[in-house]
Design brief:
By secondary structure, this protein is of the alpha/beta class. It is 33% helix and 14% strand.
């Protein structure tokens, strides 16, 4: 089954931006221009991710997210809200509606691709947290430990410290040296 993202935005420009963003990817973009009929369209598409504009005409986008979450086939699909500076996001209403996240317009294309790819692949934060993390290098473990740093072994005391100069002043001569004539 091909992977797809369903974008609900009233702006034709933003719908085109999403199509161009995912043009070279293996994720299909299906767009819809209003909240009317979006739930029925999402029900038949069964997308892997849904992106909803906050500023939709007619019904509230938060109500649309609630109705998308109410559908049995779409309850596990991640829904992201798309907002801008002139149409701010109500975070409490977004959480109450069941949105997984929010994206500020204009967005970074690669970040959007990564976010959708992560949700399409089914990778969740819980699965990522449960995965074993690699142990840090032993030098980092020593830095993070509460033990004092190791002392130099007694065999290394003969090494010259860095602050000691490498040169010694020449002894003063009573008479200046004469340079040989040029050749």
């Amino acid at each position: 089954m091909p992977k797809s993202v369903f974008v609900i935005d009233d702006s034709a420009t933003m719908r085109k931006v999403f199509e161009m963003t995912f043009a070279g990817e293996d994720i299909a973009v299906v767009t819809h221009d209003s909240a009317d009929g979006a739930v029925a369209r999402a029900r038949e598409l069964r997308p892997n991710a849904i992106i909803v504009d906050v500023n939709l005409p007619g019904t509230s986008s938060y109500d649309l997210v609630k109705s998308l979450r109410g559908e049995p086939n779409l309850s596990s699909v991640p829904v992201y809200l798309l907002y801008s500076d002139h149409s701010p996001l109500d975070e409490a209403a977004a959480r109450a509606a069941g949105a997984q996240g929010a994206v500020l317009k204009p967005f970074d294309s690669q970040a959007m691709i990564d976010r959708v790819r992560q949700s399409v692949s089914g990778a969740t934060a819980a699965a990522a947290a449960a995965a074993p993390r690699p142990r840090p290098h032993r030098c980092l473990r020593a830095l993070r430990s509460s033990r004092p740093p190791p002392r130099w072994p007694s065999t290394a005391r003969h090494l010259r410290p860095r602050w000691r100069p490498r040169w010694r002043p020449l002894p003063r001569r009573s008479a200046p040296r004469r340079l040989p004539p040029p050749r």
